[in-house]
UniProtKB/TrEMBL annotation:
Residues 590-650, 652-709 form the PASTA domain. Residues 703-749 are annotated as: Disordered. This is PASTA domain-containing protein. GO terms for molecular function: penicillin binding. It comes from Ammoniphilus oxalaticus. The lineage of its organism: Bacteria, Bacillati, Bacillota, Bacilli, Bacillales. Residues 707-717 have a biased composition (Basic and acidic residues). It comes from the Bacteria. Belongs to the transpeptidase family. It is found in: Membrane.
Length: 749
């Protein structure tokens, strides 16, 4: 029995061992065949490491290779909080002492750094980054910290994006945050191209962790491909002129916003773009408003929009310089309240279309756009000029400023659109539209990226070419429009924008601001000017827009004109554009007829010397140092001894001259320039006046003069002719034209 039991146990144990051996063989088979790949991968993790090689972000340059944004070495400051061994002394033991040394370098308070370290220790962390001041600091700061040799303070190498010119062209460039995430501008639009492609490095280690030579496969090392370099159309020097002009004006005046765009009207290249308020991409944490007003802000443009109405009317044969109309007010039953000219509806009497453009007459543009063109044709031209759609400039956040549905426009809406009310635009749309006039009639797509180059080879990968969207007006129409816009600068509301030696064409604008309730706000305006030079072959279009400067009773030209002139003058000189306007000379022949010289921009002293050469007398209106207007106009002919009135840039008050012996016309002109109410008695020449010569008079006062015929000029024909003319002058006295350049009531349209 015992022997049998032993035999059974032996058989059982043998079977069990056989079964276990079979299971072992099955497991080995499973491991070596079915699960071999998984095990190999697990093993490789022990002896192999794949490192990702980070590419360098591409650099951004201006059109001429000036550095605008680049990536460089940076360091993050880390505090090691505990030792790795008993003998390890390289850790932060005294938090407050370390914080005292680091605080002035990192720009953080001692308490803040101390708290970061103590909180990290309390949480039993091994280390802590000293943010924000210690995050990605530059090499200079890192060197300062290294010299302190503070135990436990580690400088971890990283990279950081730098903008060497700080706030320069900030809205165009955009920025990347400290995590290298592109946030706005060119950085965001071309993020993928700038990032480059990651590389890979395969490293083998033995059981002790020492590096072993790789097998030599091509897959062992794949180099990173650095990001492409972006070359902008921005010209560093011209952008600098813009930034300087805005810095100077911003210090003096407050405004909700200022935008400036400088463009090449032929190619569509944006040479400069800036806004105020702006920001520093190097300190993006401080940004409170990063809106690029030049492309994202929509507003009613005011009178700069009249350029489009004018060009459309010329193209359709609805405009001629010599046609006349009655200015002041325009009444039609369908329009409701009358359309008024900007001088409280007084107008300038019956004047030519050309004079109406020069005076920026709302009535004229209502006639041109509402009456002559009509709703359908006007709307067609607005679309052709690019309004109601994005320009495609290639920057994020561009608004389309959509046009209102044509079928839902009331007659009043159409009339208002002709002079820039009831229609919203962006600054870049305005630049594109006016560039079409400047370049001969083609709507060209604006752009800011000139080309993309390979960072290693410098080879051009991609280049932006000039893109013509469509022809909007003929070359002949464009030329005529340019000529008229030049006259606006020479003789009309744009006289403050003249530039010595160059033909400048352009248009001023003053737009009312619409409030939240849809009604226009009192004394809230957007002032602007858009102009180009030289007139017949424009190199630059410059647009300046100032939103609600914080000055009461303020003329926008005092802000806008200095900005425009600084940018345009310097840009023309920088690009060595030859003057196309000959220097002023006075050529007096021995004749009774003397041509009046142009005295605008001169000082009264210089003007007096010039007039002495041609035997003319000078009467100065105002107390300023610069002449801004004159009567008679330049080019008109007078006889020797005639009086020439000039108005200066300060005309709030003046010393009344002696009018004895002067004509009614001369007295009327002075009264108009000074805003005096004129009371006339008699006909002929002035023999007396109610205010004595030399008395200080202010604008809005009243002047009375008595006129009588000269006894030696009582011949019938002469008297009849003279009296008839002066009767006409009396009848038209309430419609007397303001012949001076610029609006003497400090209003600019």
């Amino acid at each position: 029995m015992t022997e049998k039991r032993i035999r059974m146990r032996t058989v059982f144990l043998g079977g069990a061992f056989t079964f276990l051996f079979f299971l072992l063989l099955l497991r080995v088979f499973w491991i070596q065949t079915v699960n071999a790949q998984w095990l190999l991968e697990k093993a490789q993790l022990q002896w192999e490491r794949n490192d990702t090689l980070q590419p360098k972000r591409g650099t951004i340059f201006d059109r001429n290779g000036e550095l605008l944004a680049y990536t460089s070495k940076a360091y993050t400051v880390i505090a090691k909080l505990r030792p790795l061994s008993k003998k390890d002394e390289d850790y932060v033991d005294r938090a407050f002492e370390a914080a005292q040394k680091l605080a002035p370098i990192l720009g953080m308070s001692t308490d803040r750094i101390t708290k970061l370290i103590e909180d990290g220790k309390a949480a039993k962390r091994g280390q802590v980054e000293l943010r924000p001041g210690g995050w990605k600091i530059d090499e200079d700061k890192a060197e300062e910290i290294a010299k302190l040799a503070i135990p436990g303070i580690i400088l971890y190498p990283e990279t950081k994006r730098y903008y060497p010119n700080d706030a320069f062209a900030a809205h165009v460039l955009g920025y990347t945050d400290l995590d290298d995430k592109a946030v706005m501008g060119i950085e965001k639009v071309f993020d993928e191209r700038l990032q480059g492609t990651d590389g890979k490095l395969r490293v083998l280690k033995d059981q002790r962790g020492f590096k072993l030579p790789a097998a030599g496969s091509e897959d062992d090392f794949i180099p990173a491909r650095d990001g492409d370099n972006i070359y902008l159309t921005i010209d560093y020097q011209i952008q600098n002129y813009v930034e300087d002009a805005l810095n100077n004006i911003t210090k003096k005046y407050k405004a909700n916003g200022i935008s400036v765009i400088v463009a090449d009207p032929h190619s569509g290249e944006i040479l400069a773009m800036a806004n105020r308020p702006h920001f520093s991409p190097n300190k993006y944490q401080d940004i409170t408003n990063w809106t690029n007003f030049a492309i994202s802000n929509t507003f009613e443009p005011g009178s700069t929009f009249k350029i489009v109405t004018l060009a459309a009317a010329i193209e359709e044969g609805a405009y001629r310089n010599d046609l006349t109309y009655m200015s002041g007010t325009y009444r039609r039953d369908a329009l409701g309240p009358p359309i008024r000219d900007h001088n409280q509806g007084k107008g300038w009497g019956t004047i030519s279309y050309l004079r109406g453009v020069q005076e920026s007459s709302n009535v004229l543009f209502t006639i041109l756009g509402y009456e002559n063109l009509g709703k359908d044709k006007l709307y067609e031209y607005l679309q052709k000029f690019g309004f109601g759609q994005q320009t495609g400039i290639g920057l994020p956040g561009e608004a389309s400023a959509e046009l209102r549905d044509k079928e839902r426009l009331y007659p009043r809406d159409v009339a208002s659109m002709t002079f820039g009310q009831g229609v919203v635009v962006t600054a870049i749309q305005q630049v594109a539209a006016v560039s079409a006039v400047a370049n001969g009639g083609e709507l060209v797509k604006p752009y800011v990226v000139k080309e993309i180059r390979d960072a290693q080879t410098g080879e051009v990968i991609e280049r932006t070419e000039r893109t013509v969207k469509r022809r909007v007006i003929s070359e002949e129409t464009a030329k005529q429009t340019r000529d008229i816009l030049e006259s606006v600068v020479d003789e009309g509301t744009g006289s403050f924008y003249r530039i010595e030696g160059y033909h400048v064409a352009g248009k001023t604008g003053t737009a009312q601001v619409v409030g939240a309730n849809g009604r226009y706000l009192a004394n809230k305006h957007i002032y602007s000017f858009i102009g180009f030079a030289p007139k017949d072959d424009p190199k630059f279009v410059v647009y300046v827009m100032v939103d609600q400067p914080n000055v009461s009773n303020f003329g926008g030209r005092d802000i806008v004109a200095p900005i425009f002139k600084h940018i345009m003058e310097n840009s023309l000189q920088y690009k060595k554009v030859s003057p196309d306007l000959e220097a002023e000379t006075i050529d007096v022949e021995e004749t009774d007829a003397i041509a009046i010289p142009d005295l605008s921009g001169k000082t009264p002293v210089i003007a007096e010397e010039m007039l002495k050469q041609v035997k003319l007398r000078l009467k100065v209106v105002g107390t300023g140092s610069k002449i801004v207007g004159q009567y008679p106009r330049p080019g008109e002919e007078v006889i020797a001894g005639s009086v020439l009135y000039v108005i200066t840039d300060k005309v709030d008050e003046d010393y009344l001259p002696d009018f004895t012996g002067q004509t009614l016309r001369e007295v009327m002109e002075y009264s108009s320039m000074m805003g005096l109410s004129l009371d006339v008695h008699g006909k002929g020449y002035v023999v007396s006046q109610n205010i004595e010569e030399g008395t200080r008079v202010k604008r809005g006062g009243q002047l009375a003069v008595e006129l009588k015929p000269r006894s030696n000029q009582l011949e019938d024909e002469r008297i009849t002719e003279e009296e008839e003319q002066q009767e006409t002058e009396l009848e038209e006295s309430d419609e007397a034209e303001e012949e001076v350049s610029g609006d003497v009531d400090n209003q600019e349209r």
